[in-house]
Design goal:
The protein has one domain: 3-Layer(aba) Sandwich (Rossmann fold). Strands 3-2-1-4-5-6-7 form a seven-stranded parallel β-sheet, sandwiched between helices. It starts with a strand and ends in an 8-residue tail after the last strand. The chain is α/β, with parallel strands linked by helices and 247 residues long. The protein has helices at residues 14-25, 37-46, 61-75, 98-119, 136-139, 145-165, 192-204, 214-225; strands spanning 5-9, 29-34, 52-55, 78-83, 123-132, 171-177, 236-239. Pfam families: adh_short_C2. It comes from Actinoallomurus liliacearum. This is SDR family oxidoreductase.
Length: 247
């Protein structure tokens, strides 16, 4: 029996990379995608040689076609599709221009939807699809309106897809990280001193008193990918150290 195969979008850093490493250790054949040349090069250096690293811009359907063709040629089928690619842009409503708005929805919604659509013929019956959402989509983040809206649109796909794909026993779930130590924090456009202040304020609001790690989110993704979650579908699991539960 051949090893199960997983495709992870946005898998060259942060949560995606941690998940790729974990699934590899658990015997999966893994393909990751990314579009930043620096993180692609770093991933190729640091990830195990058996993990396939592919350049793909989530906004490009041609890139997605190329990735799916590569998976088909190398492995034939898929068992796990982890739709993790995403970007965050923060700011007040008046600060957003059309290009930034379009960028967020093109990467976070369009890119993930069409990756799923194009990869679906490769997905084995009984497979698992997992989206990365984030607690901002349901619990609110100051300055995060458009990013949260794009992730909220993605989250709204989950129950309908779970119903649609249930006849094939394909489970569709989401994982929503809270404050996690990943490079995405530095990509929000805030200067270092502002990031430090945000981290301090955020930590004070987390009941468990710290940021989470990419590895902790990866463990939840690996659970949702596994047979242990064989009766879990249409769900969104928050990994946030209790963020947002206070009255």
């Amino acid at each position: 029996m051949s090893a199960p195969t997983a495709l992870i979008t946005g898998g060259t850093s942060g949560i995606g990379k941690a998940t790729a490493e974990l699934l590899h250790r658990r015997g999966y054949q893994v393909v990751v995608t990314g579009q930043n040349p620096d993180t692609l090069a770093a991933a190729e250096r640091s990830l195990p040689d058996q993990i396939v690293v592919l350049r793909a811009d989530a906004r490009s359907l041609a890139d997605t076609d190329r990735v799916v063709d590569e998976v088909r040629e190398r492995f034939g089928t898929l068992d796990v599709l982890f739709l993790n690619a995403g970007i965050v842009r923060g700011g007040p409503v008046e600060a957003f221009d059309e290009a930034t708005y379009d960028d967020l929805f093109d990467v976070n919604v369009k890119g993930q939807f069409f990756t799923l659509q194009k990869a679906l013929p490769l997905l084995n019956d009984g497979g698992s699809i997992i989206f990365t959402i984030g607690i901002g989509a349901t619990r609110g983040v100051v300055g995060g309106s458009v990013s949260a809206a794009s992730k909220g649109a993605l989250l709204s796909l989950v129950p309908s897809l779970a119903l649609e794909l249930a006849p094939r026993r394909i489970r569709v779930n989401a994982v929503s990280p809270g404050p996690i130590e990943t490079p995405i924090w530095a990509k929000g456009g805030l200067p270092p001193e502002a990031l430090e202040e945000v981290a301090k304020v955020t930590t004070a609001q987390i009941p468990l008193g710290r940021f989470g790690t990419g590895e902790e989110v990866a463990e939840v993704v690996a659970f949702l990918a596994s047979d242990a979650a064989g009766f879990v579908t249409g769900e969104n699991i928050v990994v946030g150290g209790g963020s947002g539960i206070r009255a």
